[in-house]
Amino acid sequence: MDALKLFTDVFGAAFFFALGFVFLWWVAMPPLFIPWMRSDREAWERWGSWSTLLLAGVVAMYYGVRYFIQLPSWLSGDLLLVGGLGGVTFLLVRAASSERWERALRRFRGDRLGLAALSVVCLYIFVGALETFRLPMGEFGAEKSLLDLIVQKIPNERSYSAPLASKLLNDTSAEPTPLNSNFHLLGTEQLGKDVFVETLKGCRTALILGGLTSAIYIPLGALMGLLGGYFRKWVDDLVQYLYSVLASVPEILLLVSIMFVQGQNRNLLGMSIALGVTGWVGLCRLVRGETMRQSERTYVTAARSIGQSHWQIMMRHLLPNVMHLVLINFVLGFSSIVLTEAVLSYLGVGCPVGTASWGLMIDSGRSELSRDPVVWWNLTAAAVALFGLVLALNLLGDSLRRAFDPKRS
Amino acid sequence: MFTYLIRRLLYAIPILLGVILLTFLLFRVVNTPAQQAINALGQKSSMAARDEWIKTRGLDQPLTAQFRVHVWRMATFNFEPSETSKRPMGEVFRQGVVPSLCVTFPGFVLGFIISLTLSLYQVFARHSAADRGITVLCIMMMSVPTVVYIIFGQAVLALGSNWFPVSGFQPGLGAIRFLLLPVAIMAIINLGYDARMFRAIFLEEIAQDYVRTAYAKGLPATKVLSRHVLKNGMIALITLVVGQLPKLIMGTLLIESFFGIPGIGNVLVQAIQTGDQPAVMACAYLGALLYILALTLTDILYAVADPRIRLS
What we know:
heterodimer, A: 409 residues, mainly alpha, MetI-like fold, two-stranded antiparallel ribbon, B: 312 residues, 14 helices
């Protein structure tokens, strides 16, 4: 059993490492770096599609085995995340073979601000990945993430210490106790955990939440938009009705209600379902409008005249032509998800207590401000980390939009 | 005009029914009655207490009967009383409306004016370094979580420098002292997003032919902007602003609970934290109702303001 577990974990680690830049690899590599693939677009398409499918299959098997055996519920967050992101990657790769994407890619490569934002996002993904890989290296086979292994020299204190301090903060004895280590770069929080490490761990929560939510709302929104925009008539009426009802409840109220109903059982998965249910409306509107415009074009008529089915037309022809909207919406939506998490955590319906999340860190910092001396580092570290990620995502989304549509910037 | 009015109002009815159904699904169907009782009374409550709780709320009835009661309650605004304070929700809302509006409305107007000025300046100096700088600044402002704005304002401006009271509220003119900081934060929260959107709208307007005509007949740029571009962009602007209303609600929620202003947002936050289901449901429903009303009203106002919008 242990051998199997070790195998699956190492495999999982390798996969997650791969996921981050393979994503870029498939999308960016062929047209940029491999000359023979640049001219042979079909080879690229085959490469992208088949390798994604193969990987998705293997990953599904891996997680299937792992979760059927070890967890009672197969519907785990990680499985959904991987499945969903695999799907999104697959769609992106298929869409990316069009001329519009190649042009956008060329333009994006000249955008220094966008590239800087992309590398910041990749940095966050890297840190999040470090926290995701778990190896049974702790005592009694307990799982430890790579981040844990890296920072295991930093011990817990008994209470606060200020950033870079060498003594406990609220120790009033004549000879204050020195810290277990002098390595608390950003000090420690009320339970004595290192703030810097907590902040790094928050990356994973934010990314998992954003990834899961995107995996839920992007297929939903894109499909609904395509259906409504392509079929028109009663299908469109139905889609429009659905999203008008959802959009007419102000987003935060709907979110709060869904989280509230989950009561004490809420977890990251429940939260991303709530965010996904409220989030698909914007994407659906965009995709629906663009699909309506696109389905008037002659290539759709041509496809229909050679006998392609509705499904084929939607997936082969319309979807690639609206995919850039999805990509931009994905990036910008990710940033608003991360922001919303902080609000929900403050309202008390966010991440379960004990998760390393920036929202919870900000929330806990709130009650500490009235202390003397003011305990600001917990709050500030989380806020700065969150700000960095959201800013990078916003800038990235912005330059993607510019790359796809240079005249409307 | 009259037929348009009627049609637009009729269009709101199915949406409203959808919202009622949505609240019913969320608050009555997703959780079993036993689960609802546990959520309301806590894990340690006795079985008898839970049964009692279920029976008094009629949750043991079949779903169809419950739905009938639910629709009737929503349609007549006869909400169940709050679980914690036992007061009827109508009274709670009536008391909360004035303080809520005291924060939201001035903050909203102030934010609108600032972002309008900012975006008009950007359009005036388009594609210059100042324009780009403001755009980046706006993106940065969008990236700061609302909570951080509030905490920063409270910590630095109220606690640190004692310029403003930390929290609290009092009726009458004395409220102004307490409202200054919340209103300022309210104005800042959506500033980045609004300014960017307004700029996009104005840029689209400025590419129109009538702007070129205005320049050609010798109008100075400031006049073109204020007379023509601003006026024509106003319609798109108002849609956008109405679309922003839900974000305003989020701001109110956070600001009211941080600054201890006894408004509706505060009611909701407390209801969430004490597990007060009827209050949460009533807030969600009323929020949706007000939003639908606002959307309908803007649509009607369009038809009044812009003769190009055909009444068919």
